[in-house]
Amino acid sequence: MLTTADPRSPSRPEPRPGVMEIAPYVPGRTKSTGGAKLHKLSSNETPLGPSPRAVEAFSACAGHLELYPDGGSTGLREAIADVYGLNPERMICGNGSDEILELVARAYIGPGDEGLYSEYGFLVYKIAILAAGGTPVVAPEQNLTTDVDALLARVTPRTKVVFLANPNNPTGTYLPFDEIRRLHAGLPSNVLLVLDAAYAEYVRRNDYEAGVELAATADNVLMTRTFSKIYGLAALRIGWAYGPAHVIDALNRVRGPFNVSAASQAAGIAAVRDRAFLETAVAHNDKWLDWVSQEVAALGLQVTPSVGNFVLIHFPEEPGRTAAEADAYLSARGCVLRAVGAYGLPNALRMSIGSEEANREVVSVLKEFLAGR
Known about the structure:
Elements: E1 39-40, H1 52-59, H2 74-84, E2 91-95, H3 96-108, E3 114-118, H4 123-131, E4 135-139, H5 148-153, E5 159-165, H6 177-186, E6 192-196, H7 212-217, E7 221-226, E8 238-242, H8 245-254, H9 262-273, H10 275-298, E9 302-304, E10 310-314, H11 323-332, E11 335-336, E12 338-339, E13 348-352, H12 356-371
Helix pairs in contact: 1-9, 2-9, 3-4, 10-12
């Protein structure tokens, strides 16, 4: 039965309060402003691309597109578990690790609850917390590095989840695992600690751990990983998480039934088993991360020490030498970096480690920019 609309009601469907106040995530630019050859270094993608075995596995799925994928990503979980020595029953796969972070917020955060993260933490944390109806709480950092004491000082009875990227994006800094353990020991047992280890494969520090052991033994720790970075499968959106059975059970109850495509699962299985290709990617990053950091610093710019596959480059505030002006100059010459003003770092640019050609070109163009040519 049709009724007359209340004249005070909205004239169109309106999202619930708070949704339109969420700043959408803006990914790194994919195009330059000039006609030069494009070097896209804005999204921390690997310059080596995916394993040929992953490409072959992906292509083999083309003849079976009418079939639904395995809803539990069973084969992919078993392959990851085999490589890392884990229990596949305590694992969940997602449409990128971003989806898993959102599932965590959906399952554990609601109106009146708080989600906690570090000052320069990944932007998706805030978006996921707000989308779930929760309140984001931010802990200040020390020297662009997560401060455990600052995080613990901001834990309240309303805190449900602590999100921690280690290494962190966009700074490239990390916490030694002793500090992670100290953070975990200081949290109430009902607070879920999410260790976002998207860049773990790149780290070569003796005091670093991704969080596998803590996620395997603690009742309130979840470790997330991704195939988008070193595995070169960003286009396929594959993430995974490992943690307590009860947490995995909760996340499975709120995820979509077929959230990882069949082609993605097949490519992921092939990629995770191709250890030789992964080591080649690690070696490339080791060489060029050091080279880029040293060469950019030699130009007189500050570079935050990074353990990931990117560097954070800081620019002075003086006219003609700012990050915004450098970004425009670089882009016009085909070098696309990532502006990080949305992170509260308006005078910095994040540069992904690219191919030898791309790395050398960025340094050359930066030298021209700083010389005022």
